[in-house]
């Protein structure tokens, strides 16, 4: 298969109009779609706090956010459950949608989180050739992988994440939710830790 097909088969479905202005007065947006078994989850269902991140693999701010989330996971351990959802704004990040579908294709082979990390580590190298290389590096069944990606098997899955984000008031990436409530503060480590501690206190 021609490596460029990985990208060429991804037709832009989420372009203009996404990421518009956010109301100046914050409103308590709730997740339009609750966390469920179809989500990508790290942590136990019994955790006091669920931190959900809408992100895109080509977004440099999400790269930073991903590193912060990993620090937070180490800090809170069993008190925290982490969920990742895709929000590829192709008008801003043209390779993000293809990368999201590649992550899902890896997930089909139980390697979602491994691909998730690889894509963030290489956020500025998400062309078709590199995406194929990451799949090979992870030891994926390449025949299955290529069939899944070129057939756009997970295009609707990625689209559903995007729509759920838009319906939940997401206008850019990364955007965080704590226990289903949108976080309006900064995405810096200290601010997120404070928000989690508040959520833990409220959950007791």
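Q: What amino acid sequence fits the structure above?
A:
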């Amino acid at each position: 298969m021609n490596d460029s097909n990985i990208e060429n088969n991804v037709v832009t479905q989420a372009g203009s109009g996404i990421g518009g202005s956010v109301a100046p007065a914050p409103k308590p947006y709730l997740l339009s779609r609750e966390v469920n078994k179809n989500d990508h989850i790290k942590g136990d269902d019994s955790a006091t706090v669920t931190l959900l991140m809408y992100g895109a693999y080509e977004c440099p701010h999400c790269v930073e956010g991903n590193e912060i989330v990993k620090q937070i996971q180490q800090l809170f351990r069993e008190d925290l459950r982490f969920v990742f959802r895709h929000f590829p704004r192709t008008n801003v990040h043209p390779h993000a949608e293809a990368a999201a579908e590649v992550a899902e294709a890896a997930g089909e082979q139980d390697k979602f989180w491994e691909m998730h990390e690889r894509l963030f580590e290489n956020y500025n190298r998400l062309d078709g050739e590199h995406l194929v290389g990451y799949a090979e590096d992870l030891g994926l069944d390449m025949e299955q992988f290529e069939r899944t990606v070129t057939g756009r098997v997970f295009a609707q899955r990625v689209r559903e994440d995007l729509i759920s984000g838009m319906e939940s008031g997401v206008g850019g990436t990364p955007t965080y939710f704590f226990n289903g409530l949108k976080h309006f503060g900064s995405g810096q480590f200290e601010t997120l830790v404070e928000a989690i501690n508040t959520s833990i206190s409220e959950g007791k």
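Q: And what stands out in the fold?
A: The longest strand covers residues 49-55.
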